[in-house]
Amino acid sequence: MSPRSFTKVVAADALGPEASVFDLEADETQRARLAERFSIPALESVNARLEAYREDSGDVVVSGSLEATAQQVCVVTLEPFPTSVEAAFRRRYTASPIDPELPEQPDEDTEPLTPELDLGELVAQEFGLALDPYPRAPGATLDSRYREDGESPFAVLRQLKR
Question: H or E segment at 30?
């Protein structure tokens, strides 16, 4: 499967100094691809609003926010549960060459400017970053024998050693 599960391509040359607004919503097929890409059981909605403009330097700045409703698997119960994802982000696409050998690097949110920008892929990446890597369902707790304030799981081994 292509890593591009959600696309909205915009020509960089079409952007001017006035911000262009893009409202993106993933359809059912795109949501299924995103859910598979990020290994989650389901993705009910993904909506994003982005603004993009070109600076006098030629750089393109894209900022926006996304909201999503998904199912994640709880790390405690291993059961799926509903969750909401919200994120705000900003990326700069620079027309200047980025030299990895230079000691002074550009901001980590800076990428090389290409003739086309895939705003959908940007939203997909930001969604992936906003997902909780260790999701826990509300009210899910570890059994007391595995908690830090309870007895150590190695206590049984200590008793066997005696």
Answer: helix 28-37
